[in-house]
Amino acid sequence: MLLFQIFPCPWFLISFLVPCYGSLQPGFSKLQRGYRLDRKLIQSFTEVSFLDCVIECLVTPRCKSVNYYKGANFCEINYENKTTAETRYMESAGWVYSEKEHWPKELAGACSNSTCEINQTCKHKRYSEDKFFECVLSDCGIPDQKGINLSSIKREDAIGLHRRIHASCADGYSQSGSGRLNCQSNGEWKYNIVCEGEYATMICEEVNYSCFSFE
Ligand SMILES: *[C@@H]1O[C@H](CO)[C@@H](O)[C@H](O)[C@H]1NC(C)=O
Ligand SMILES: *[C@@H]1O[C@H](CO)[C@@H](O)[C@H](O)[C@H]1NC(C)=O
Ligand SMILES: *[C@@H]1O[C@H](CO)[C@@H](O)[C@H](O)[C@H]1NC(C)=O
Ligand SMILES: *[C@@H]1O[C@H](CO)[C@@H](O)[C@H](O)[C@H]1NC(C)=O
Ligand SMILES: *[C@@H]1O[C@H](CO)[C@@H](O)[C@H](O)[C@H]1NC(C)=O
């Protein structure tokens, strides 16, 4: 199989003297071929190797698992795993699924020590003297506006910066707005949805939430 071919040892592994092939063996042996976790996407990446995909997950605190499509070197990092999102774990030809926990932390190099927040991702800084990584904003988090129902989320939806998701209002709420939520570059959602209901209205008044300021 393609994935079992020898991978070059990334530069930061060499520098930490981690025995590459030995420590990666458990991760490879637990790969789930022909499976994918659906609709729990943080971000996706094109033209990356499988190991880079795993590393992307290791440097992103919110990430729990990855889906990888070998044919297109396409990587998806997920904010849940198959245990926490059982119903979204499904057969999907050509994909492999892998969990973050099955890989050694050291694969993340300097970022294995990072103190990045849940909505950030750690980036390596190769040439800086004092600090070898930095934390940059990665996503808008899971939308938690009252009355919102995320069951209408589509396959390509993601919570990463500049991505969007489709939402609707929960049963008993009436919806206005397109239902599209855009993750802005400042890490905050632009909610093009208002869910109104008895309960929702009450909450709005209570906290003086700017319920009606959406476009
Ligand atoms: C899945 O995610 C949960 C919650 O983050 C975690 O406790 C668990 O160890 C993960 N992996 C498995 C295999 O359950
Ligand atoms: C992580 O931090 C500890 C203590 O600050 C240090 O000893 C260790 O070398 C660091 N590891 C990496 C990979 O930077
Ligand atoms: C969310 O939407 C789904 C499908 O549209 C529906 O079956 C479910 O009952 C809704 N959940 C809530 C809490 O409104
Ligand atoms: C990112 O997460 C931190 C800690 O959870 C929080 O204080 C901060 O407001 C978040 N940033 C954005 C842009 O949401
Ligand atoms: C609610 O917010 C508006 C605008 O932000 C403000 O003008 C108004 O005084 C606030 N009302 C209360 C009761 O806090």
Automatic annotation (TrEMBL):
- Any idea where the Apple domain is? 20-102
- Which intervals of the chain form a coiled coil? none
- InterPro entries, sorted: Pan_app, Sushi/SCR/CCP_sf, Sushi_SCR_CCP_dom
- Which Pfam family would be a valid example here? PAN_1
Q: Which domain of life is it from?
A: Eukaryota
* The UniProt record lists the keyword Signal: yes
User: What S-S linkages are listed for this chain?
Assistant: C140-C183
Asked whether the keyword Disulfide bond is assigned, the reply is: yes
**Signal peptide (residue range):** 1-22
Membrane-crossing ranges are none
Give the record's keywords alphabetically.
Answer: Disulfide bond, Signal, Sushi
Q: Which residues form the Sushi domain?
A: 138-197
According to UniProt, the name of this protein is: Sushi domain-containing protein
Q: What's the source species for this entry?
A: Magallana gigas
Q: What is the lineage of its organism?
A: Eukaryota, Metazoa, Spiralia, Lophotrochozoa, Mollusca
